[in-house]
Specification:
Structural class: alpha+beta
CATH class: Alpha Beta
Helix content: 10-25%
Number of domains: 1
Largest sheet: 6 strands, antiparallel
Order of helices and strands: HHEEHEEEE
Strand content: 35-45%
């Protein structure tokens, strides 16, 4: 398949394509932050990134928006892996709990998103961000709206 066929891919096929091809010519938040798709399964995604000084908040640690973006991406993409071709999603609600600060010195943050439920119109997922030592940095839940191309 070529990049022109992505509309015909199921969510799982698309996420696996992103994982293996790592398309660099397509502008995405993942490319901007340096996200890697480490694991892609039906209903589950693991993404990671290496922190950097650009991610700092005024206190010098990783801004909470970085963890929230990792969580939103992991959970949303996990939902996407359950959807057929030409069916999309968007985040309706994101609830994040921050547990500890992360450093901006190149440490790896890993987010795992797992689907809880996929219905006809909405889906729910949960996620966790951990640091290199496996310590919990943040956890979250999301509700996504399922968007059919005929809607």
């Amino acid at each position: 398949m070529t990049t022109l066929d992505i509309a015909a891919m199921s969510g799982l096929e698309l996420m696996r394509w992103v994982q293996t091809e790592r398309p660099t010519g397509i502008p995405t938040i993942g490319r901007l932050l340096g996200m890697r798709f480490d694991e892609v399964e039906h209903g589950r995604i693991v993404v990671s990134l290496d922190t950097r000084p650009d991610f700092a908040n005024p206190l010098g640690t990783v801004h909470g928006g970085i963890a929230a973006t990792l969580l939103d991406s992991a959970m949303g993409c996990a939902v996407h892996t359950t959807l057929p071709a030409r069916v999309g999603y968007t985040t309706l609600e994101l609830k994040v709990n921050y547990i500890r600060a992360a450093q901006t010195d190149g440490r790896t943050l890993t987010a795992e998103g797992t689907v809880i439920h996929v219905g006809r119109r909405t889906a729910a997922a949960e996620g966790r961000v951990t640091d290199e030592k496996g310590k919990l940095v943040a956890h979250a839940t999301t509700t996504c709206l399922i968007i059919n191309s005929e809607d």
